[in-house]
Amino acid sequence: MPSSGPQVLGPVSTFTVNGTDISDFVTNVTIEDSREEVDVTGFTQDTRSFIPGLRDASINATILQGYGSNEPDAVLGNLYYNNLAGTVKVNPDTNGTVVYTMISKIYSFSPVSGAVGDRNEIEVTFRNFGTAGITRGTS
Fold first, then answer.
1. Could you give the angle at the alpha carbon of 18 between the alpha carbons of 16 and 20, nearest 5°?
2. Domains of the chain
3. What integer pLDDT is reported at residue 1 of this predicted model?
4. Which of 26, 37, 88, 117 is the most exposed place for a label (fewest CB within 10 A)?
5. pTM of the complete model
6. 3-state secondary structure at position 16
7. In 3-state terms, what secondary structure has residue 76?
8. Residue 44: beta bridge partners?
9. What is the per-residue burial (b if ≥16 Cβ within 10 Å, else e) of 26-59?
10. 18 Cβ contact partners less than 8 Å away, ≥ 6 residues apart
11. 3 state SS of 123
12. What is the distance between the alpha carbons of residues 11 and 32, in angstroms, rounded to a whole number?
């Protein structure tokens, strides 16, 4: 099967939180998935040896703030203020086939950010909640 080639984020990339599409408000997204490196080097070895340890995952997003009922303040504020976990889905693939999903919580929320004349832009980090971390699937 031929490669789909390099991809560009937008205009058909999507970002949903608990099924609510807030893609029109998202200007930047970074998905991070990592594992600790656990050193298992024994006394008699002269070269370090590592195995994968615990995973950590996050989705970092720059979001233009909106205060309507299905806009970022209501959707994200609901998770944060009620200490709820939510499902975040990022579909970056312009072919519409790849989706990254994570059950997450928000541990810090700044609902207003900016100076006079600035756009009200917030940075949100969705942290892994549960045992699955980031999952890659197809839509």
1. 50
2. 14-38+50-138 (2.40.30)
3. 43
4. 117
5. 0.86
6. strand
7. helix
8. none
9. beebebebeeeeeeeeeeeeeeeeeeeeeeebbb
10. 75, 79, 86, 87
11. strand
12. 22
Is-cis flag, bond preceding 2, omega within 30? Answer: no
Phi/psi of residue 50, each to 5°? -125, 150
Cα 17 to Cα 37: distance, rounded to the nearest angstrom: 31
Query: Rounded CA gap, 34 and 32, in Å?
Result: 7
Half-sphere exposure of 48 (CA within 13 A, CB side): 5
- Using one digit for the tens of pLDDT, what is the confidence trace for 49-105? 999 999 999 999 999 999 999 999 999 999 999 999 999 999 998 677 899 999 999
CB burial of residue 9 (10 Å; 0-12, 13-18, 19+): middle
Is the Cβ–Cβ distance between 139 and 98 less than 8 Å?
A: yes
- Tell me what pLDDT residue 4 has: 63
Q: Which two tokens stand for residue 14?
A: 């999507």
What would the two tokens of residue 51 be? 């195995």
Start-end of H helices in 7-137:
72-81
DSSP at 101: E
Let me know: does 72 contact 112? Beta carbons within 8 Å.
no
